[in-house]
Design a protein that fits this description.
By secondary structure, the chain is of the alpha/beta class. It has a single domain, classed as 4-Layer Sandwich (Metallo-beta-lactamase, Chain A). Helix content is about 15%, strand content about 30%. The strands form two sheets. The protein has a seven-stranded mixed β-sheet with strand order 1-2-3-4-5-6-7, with no helix packed on it. Helix 2 links the parallel strand 6 and strand 7. The radius of gyration is 16 Å and the shape is globular. It starts with a strand and ends in an 11-residue tail after the last helix.
Length: about 220
């Protein structure tokens, strides 16, 4: 999907590829299929196997790939053979990279589930590329910190599968709170959730005046 001067594609589950400023950025690659281009930058939200998948990271790294992650992923990623540049990031921090790319750490946690404790300081990301602001929420519930993003985003990538994250109704409420130019569902179709959850999210967003689309897996 083309948005301004960037391209966004969904790789399944919570995985996305963003291409802009002559850089290829992967977020939470998991169960990648077919041929995949090598990554300039990889963002990992937290250590769970379906987000910090070493097997999938190995498919796309090259010498010089920048891997950005919370401290809890550091020991797993440090074992990779290639000459990557590992950068840890915490909640509230921002990393400025070449080509005008900025990456900010946003809280991601559960309120009424035990899977993603706030104390772990796992992440969502606020990514700015070519003047486009993209929020990848990570594995999260609808949390108060989302209010700070209201009206500041072109794109919000929100989990809809339930069980470990928001469900479609909660995700639509988050979208209504954030008010992005476009909301895209994620975290469905394999580990949790289904296409029906994504379609329900799109319908609920429409009822709230939020534009939403369901991307085909690439």
């Amino acid at each position: 999907m083309k948005i301004g001067d960037i391209d966004i594609s969904w790789k399944g589950h919570s995985g996305f590829v963003i291409e802009g400023n002559n850089k290829l950025i992967y977020i939470d690659p998991y169960n990648l299929q077919g041929e995949n281009e090598e990554a300039d930058i990889i963002l990992i939200t937290h250590p769970h196997y379906d987000h910090c998948s070493i097997a999938d990271i190995e498919k796309i790294i090259k010498d010089g790939t920048i891997v950005v992650c919370p401290a809890g992923c550091q020991s797993k990623i440090a074992k990779l053979d290639k000459g990557i540049e590992l950068r840890t990031i915490d909640v509230g921090e921002t990393i400025e990279l070449a080509n005008g790319i900025a990456i900010g750490g946003i809280p991601a946690y559960n309120i009424n589930k035990p899977n993603h404790p706030k104390s772990e300081r796992w992440l969502g990301y606020l990514l700015k590329v070519n003047g486009i602001s993209i929020y990848h929420a990570g594995d999260t519930d609808l949390i108060p910190e989302m209010k700070k993003l209201a009206g500041k985003l072109q794109v919000a990538l929100l989990p809809v599968g339930g069980n470990f994250t928001m469900n479609s109704r909660e995700a639509a409420e988050a979208a209504a709170l954030i008010k992005p130019g476009l909301a895209l569902p994620m975290h469905y179709g394999s580990v949790a959730g289904s296409l029906a959850d994504a379609e329900a999210f799109k319908k609920l967003c429409g009822q709230k005046g939020i534009k939403a689309e369901v991307l085909e897996k690439e």
